[in-house]
Specification:
alpha+beta; 6-stranded antiparallel β-barrel; 12 helices; elongated; binds guanosine-5'-diphosphate; GTP binding
Length: about 525
Amino acid sequence: EIGIEGDQDAPETLKPRAPVVTIMGHVDHGKTSLLDALRGTDVVRGEAGGITQHIGAYQVKTKGGDIITFLDTPGHEAFTEMRARGANVTDIVILVVAADDGLMPQTIEAINHTKAAGVPMIVAINKVDKPEANPQRIRERLLEHEIVVEDLGGDVQDVQVSALKKTGLDELIEKILLQAELLELTANPDRAAEGNVIEAKLDKGRGPVATVLVRRGTLKVGDNFVVGAESGKVRAMVNDKGENVKVAGPSAPVEVLGLSGVPMAGDQLSVVENEARAREVAAYRSELATKKRTTAAPTSVEHMFSALNATVIEYPIVVKADVQGSVEAIVGALNRASTDEIKVRVLHSGVGAITESDVTLAAASRAPLIGFNVRPNAKARVLAERDKVSLRYYDVIYDLIEEVKGEMAGQLAPERIETIVGRAEVLQVFPAGKKDKAAGLLVMDGIIRKGLNARLTRDDVIVSRTTIASLRRFKDDVSEVRAGMECGAMLQDTNDIKVGDTLELFEVEERQRTL
Ligand code: GDP
């Protein structure tokens, strides 16, 4: 995009940056309470007297002096919506599970959305202050979703907390920092800033405002920028403590004033040289956005390309069905349809209507979304239309599986089928131009035909490949010559040919694979 995005920073310019954390989990399991409790651990806020400005994200300075950025919009919908817009801002997910309630539908959605994004997870078992809390049961139930905590021999960190009683918070912070260390998060702070919009609104007094999470570089007051299809010049910046700031570096969230209009969550902000440039890029992006909206539905083709270098192609899919029995039958059949070359990856499956969460997940992963005896709810329908998600409805499992298999097969390279159509012995060789050779041939079996590909073998070893450019019999051009007859042939691009060699002619057919 006009050379302002997508460039890589040189390794020596990279400095450590704060991790960006999103909290997910089932409703009422304590996401908001935990966000508040963690916010309360900030040593800076303690000094300042605890002014809180809700801008969509906040930073905590730990007792050890480390910084952590928390996104203030909990839940997997926001997370995946951002991802669908190309903004993979989250480094670490905290999965909150209430110890008295256990794994619930949205817990499982959160797990699947996190897995689909490939973001590491820390499990926070919340409400352990409650007498009926059963943390061990949660660890065991997580196994069913391939989440193995350290205690059970896995590598997913877990921690028992009470957002209410504020216990386990230090340990949770420690685990976030440990995970962040493993990720070796870095960014170049000394360049033109780039970031993503976390949230945006039209403020009555201040005009359009957007909270931007800086990804790299340092955003400064006075910077010209483009954000989505809008442009602007940073008039002022406000941090999560309500303070006016002049600069914001990597992983810092700031409210930015001075935009031409309200951008969308997930939109990328890029600082540019001057106002003219900002307007030019904004216009270009706006045009691009219009074009994008009118292009075809996303397919799994991009997945195929990204997987080309790997040995196995992944076929992502989201499945919703009317009853658990159908879900199990479909997922089982899909898994059995996997081969060594292409594997079905069920990103999420569940019982019930197709929801917005299902649609955003399918959109972000460019996966088809299957409804078996279920339909999308109204909001999901609108979203699917907007994001051009491929929705498919079935009421017969066989049809569903056969169609998916067909699509999977379509992603495999076609099968190459070779048929030998004839053999000839080389009786004479004449030079003919730089690369070509003319040869006298005796057709031993089958047929030889003009235009066919051929191999020259000598003592059953292939010495060169060629194409029959033309055929002659008694001064006449012919298109084919049958067994038992002699002919002259012009052999294209032949570097090695001797009297006594065998010419083997073959036809190649490419056939679409089936599963
Ligand atoms: P969210 O929907 O996931 O954001 O959940 P909330 O943070 O709104 O919490 C839902 C309810 O659980 C509220 O009534 C909280 O007071 C309560 N709650 C949250 N954390 C704890 C906890 O650690 N212990 C207990 N006993 N209650 C909690």
